Amino acid sequence: MSKTKIILLTIVVTALVTFFAVKYFLSPHPFSPVELSQKEEIKLNEKLQYFGLPALASSNEDQPALEPEAYSEKDAKREISFSEKELNALLAKNTDLADKVAIDLSDSLASAKMIIPLDPDFPVLGGKTLKVSGGAEFAFRDGRPVVILKGVSIWGVPIPNAWLGNLKNVDLVSEFGGDEGFWKSFAEGVSNIQIEEGQLKIKLKE
């Protein structure tokens, strides 16, 4: 094969590889919104109503009108439980993130995939789409909640720990729970937290 043909072949192959790389990494397909069956939707609405949260926007069931009643904590339920499907359905029904965020729950691990459109004025990648994924361990040990960032990746490439502020594999509750703020309040209000395959369970303190 002549040198000219080799050069042309190299250019064609490079162009094809570049095209598919841009197509896959910078233009990822949106996620498919999660849909609940009518029975599943009713069950989720019951949970939301119990905690005073708004029902799903497109519920098939008519929601009862609020009635005045005296406040009481007697026999109050202090456990919150949501399935992976319910969490994704909440995103799909009540936010504009249905095709941009997908949540996965496995044993002690919560993971998320996100598609983030970049502003057209963003340098180099303006107008493209950023594909981000990450995970964090959630558990309850030694009488307190544990939240450990396991990592963050962009387009499937893990971000160096230094770029994450050296927070990878660090217990965020232990690291920041001593200061006034979110993590301290979170730790003081939780008596148990557990993630099993497809299920998030949180028990609140009195």
Helices and strands in order, then pairings?
Layout: H1 3-26, H2 38-50, E1 79-83, H3 84-94, E2 101-106, E3 109-117, E4 129-141, E5 144-154, E6 157-158, H4 172-176, H5 182-189, E7 190-196, E8 199-204
Antiparallel strand pairs: 1-8, 2-3, 3-4, 4-5, 5-6, 7-8
Structural domains: how many: 2
Let me know the largest β-sheet. Answer: 5 strands, antiparallel
Overall mean confidence score, pLDDT: 75
Rounded to an integer in angstroms, the radius of gyration calculated over CA atoms is 23 Å
Coarse morphology: globular
Number of helices: 5
State which percent range the strand residues make up: 25-35%
**How much helicity do the residues have?**
25-40%
Please report the total strand number as a whole number: 8
Instruction: Report the end-to-end length measured between terminal Cα atoms.
Output: 79 Å
Order of helices and strands: HHEHEEEEEHHEE
Spatial strand order of the main sheet: 2-3-4-5-6
Low-confidence stretches: 10-27
Class derived from helix and strand content: alpha+beta
Summarize the structure in short.
The chain is an alpha+beta fold and 206 residues long.
Question: Can you put this structure into words, describing what you see?
Answer:
The chain has 206 residues and is of the alpha+beta class. It folds into two domains: 29 residues; 155 residues, no CATH class. It is 30% helix and 29% strand. It is built from five helices and eight strands, in the order ααβαβββββααββ. The strands form two sheets. A five-stranded antiparallel sheet has the order 2-3-4-5-6. A three-stranded antiparallel sheet has the order 1-8-7. The longest helix is centred in the N-terminal third of the chain and has 24 residues. It is globular, with a radius of gyration of 23 Å. The chain starts with a helix and ends with a strand. About 9% of the residues have low confidence.
